[in-house]
Amino acid sequence: MTHSECQAIAAEVPSWNARFQSAPPQKILAWATEQWGKHMALSCSFSGPAGMVLLDMVATIAPATAIFYIDTGLLFRETYELAARVQERYGLRIRVARPAQSVAEQAKAEEEALWSRDPERCCRLRKVLPLAEALAPYDAWVTGVRRGSASTRSATQVVEWSKKYNLVKLNPLAFWSEQDVWRYIHAHNVPYNPLLDLGYHSIGCHTCTQLPTTDDPRSGRWAGFGKTECGLHVEPA
After folding, report:
1. Is 7 a member of any domain?
2. Separation between Cα atoms, residue 45 and residue 149, nearest integer Å
3. Is residue 228 one of the residues assigned to a domain?
4. What are the b/e assignments for 219-237, b being 16+ CB within 10 Å?
5. Residue 205 catalytic?
6. Separation of alpha carbons 55 and 86, rounded Å
7. CA 93 → CA 13, 64, 126, 200, 208, distances in Å?
8. How many domains does one find in the chain?
9. Sequence-ordered list of residues with C-beta below 8 angstroms from that of 24, at least 6 positions apart, any chain
């Protein structure tokens, strides 16, 4: 999109939010697929339950939507197994976005276990940059971000303009509670990551994920660092 086109779309965001703030996510997705169709993508991590809810909805409501996940090379076995199971169940073609370097190549370039020394840089190399590349062909991005999932996400809107990725960011579940998410999963028999049944609340790479240590669902991420976000959803100031 040109700069003027981006500005025009960004100007529409407040009115879209006023229109859809109380709308069910299915209605939001139906509208979004009319707006962007094949130019819209869903990123699903196959870790959190909200992403699985959206994948289930998209498979029915917006089947033209591209679906992908970021394979850092460091995901849990359960995460990879869920991605494979979902493709078979829904008959979807799920794309995989990967970092420019394998884990071994990164170790040679950055020394071993970058995540244990500089998790911010590791997340940028293995998550943020691959996401930016995967989103480049699209004009709209569907995510499972919810206001209640982290204190850093409490201001999330249903529709946002992402300066970071230069597209419309859609958060259809922004106002859903954790209970709403699980109610949908059980009602529709949606598959989810079995690690969630073991007490994990926020799941990423196995190198940087452990059971939560406090009531904060993201307290099990990047233990020992003052870090709660990998950077995928952090916009520039």
Report:
1. yes
2. 15
3. no
4. bbbbeeeeebebebbeeee
5. no
6. 9
7. 30, 11, 22, 28, 28
8. 1
9. none
User: Of residues 122, 123, 208, 230, which has the active-site annotation?
Assistant: 230
Domain that holds residue 21: 3-198
Amino acid at 209: T
Strand positions, DSSP E, the chain: 40-43, 66-70, 94-97, 140-142, 159-162, 167-170
Phi/psi zone of residue 120: left (φ > 0), alpha (ψ -120 to 50 degrees), beta? Answer: alpha
pLDDT at residue 186 in the model: 98
Burial of 129 (0-12, 13-18, 19+ CB in 10 A): middle
* pLDDT of 57: 97
Structural contact between residues 219 and 213, judged by C-beta atoms closer than 8 angstroms:
yes
Whether the predicted pLDDT of 215 surpasses 80: no
- Give the mean pLDDT of 46-53: 96
Distance CA 163, CA 26 (A): 26
CATH code for position 112: 3.40.50.620
Mean of per-residue pLDDT scores for the chain: 93
Q: Does any domain span residue 218?
A: no
101-129 confidence digits (pLDDT tens): 999 999 999 999 999 999 999 999 999 99
CA–CA distance, 207 with 74 (Å, rounded to integer): 7
User: For the segment 57-79, what is each residue's pLDDT rounded down to a tens digit?
Assistant: 999 999 889 999 999 999 999 99
The amino acid sitting at 195 is L
| Tokens matching residue 39 | 């130019």
